[in-house]
């Protein structure tokens, strides 16, 4: 049971790091260009999950590990349970999800646009 709880906590950390990478990874690409091959699919997946209201596969994994550890699972997904109480205390609506997806898309589009513009301007 102890190791299942540790694994569930590990999934939470990986989940949060993935979200941060999907949202802000374009800034890392600015410094390390080779990360583009990891970041573009991660950002694309993050946008699709939010816009299409798909469940993230890490959420059911965390739920099953929590239950295996004898802990109580929670309703909803990772974003609703861990992030929205901090960012949006009222809860997650479909409009909020679409807004989050568009934010990720626009932020990364801006970052990649600047990177491409800089590359294009170089002789």
Protein described:
- This protein has five helices and no strands.
- The protein has one domain (2-121).
- The mean pLDDT is 85.
- Helix 1 (2-31) crosses helix 2, helix 1 packs antiparallel against helix 3 (58-68) and helix 2 runs antiparallel to helix 5.
- The protein has 123 residues and is mainly α.
- Helices cover 78% and strands 0% of the residues.
- The radius of gyration is 17 Å and the shape is elongated.
What's the short story on this structure?
The chain has helices spanning 2-31, 36-52, 58-68, 78-87, 94-121. The protein is mostly helical. The mean pLDDT is 85.
Set out the fold topology.
Blueprint: H1 2-31, H2 36-52, H3 58-68, H4 78-87, H5 94-121
Key phrases:
123 residues, mainly alpha
How many individual helices?
A: 5
Contiguous uncertain segments of 5+ residues: none
Number of strands: 0
- Over the alpha carbons, how many angstroms does the gyration radius reach? 17 Å
> The biggest beta sheet, please?
none
Q: What sort of overall outline do the alpha carbons produce when their principal axes are compared? A: elongated
Our count of domains comes out at: 1
Structural class comes to: mainly alpha
SSE sequence, one letter per element: HHHHH
β-strand amount: under 5%
Helix residue percentage? over 70%
């Amino acid at each position: 049971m102890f190791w299942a709880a540790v694994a569930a906590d590990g999934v939470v950390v990986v989940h949060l790091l993935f979200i941060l990478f999907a949202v802000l990874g374009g800034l890392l690409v600015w410094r390390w260009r080779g990360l583009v091959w990891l970041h573009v699919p991660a950002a694309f997946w993050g946008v699709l999950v939010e816009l299409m209201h798909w469940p993230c596969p890490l959420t059911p994994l965390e739920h099953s590990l929590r239950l295996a550890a004898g802990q109580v699972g929670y309703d909803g997904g990772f974003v609703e349970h861990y992030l929205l109480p901090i960012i949006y205390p009222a809860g997650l609506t479909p409009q909020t999800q679409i807004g989050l997806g568009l934010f990720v898309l626009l932020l990364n589009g801006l970052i990649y646009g600047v990177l491409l513009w800089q590359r294009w301007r170089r002789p």
